[in-house]
């Protein structure tokens, strides 16, 4: 005697079935496995491309910081160069007026007043 095939209604798909992975054993899924495989491959490609974009963003940020550092170094070097040029021009002008640069710095004179002298005045 042949077995009679009965059409049992499929059990409803619940959230716990999805978490456990029991939905993969259903007949509908077995029929359309190619589409699910395609979705899986597309999701993996999307995750990988996102990973590459994040790497490039980190590289760009590092390059921006390095650029800012070089800009500040350049500005500092230019200001020093301008000061040196001004000092050399000033030295030429002083030499024309036959003035000499000081070898020793000038001394500051401090005058202290006694309290008795201040009252007498």
Automatic annotation (TrEMBL):
One Pfam family in the UniProt entry = FtsL_2
The organism's place on the tree of life at top rank: Bacteria
| Membrane spanning residue stretches | 31-48
Which keywords fit this entry according to its UniProt record? Membrane, Transmembrane, Transmembrane helix
Q: Which InterPro entries match?
A: FtsL-like (IPR045755)
Protein name from the UniProt record: S-adenosyl-methyltransferase
Q: Which organism is it from?
A: Chryseobacterium piperi
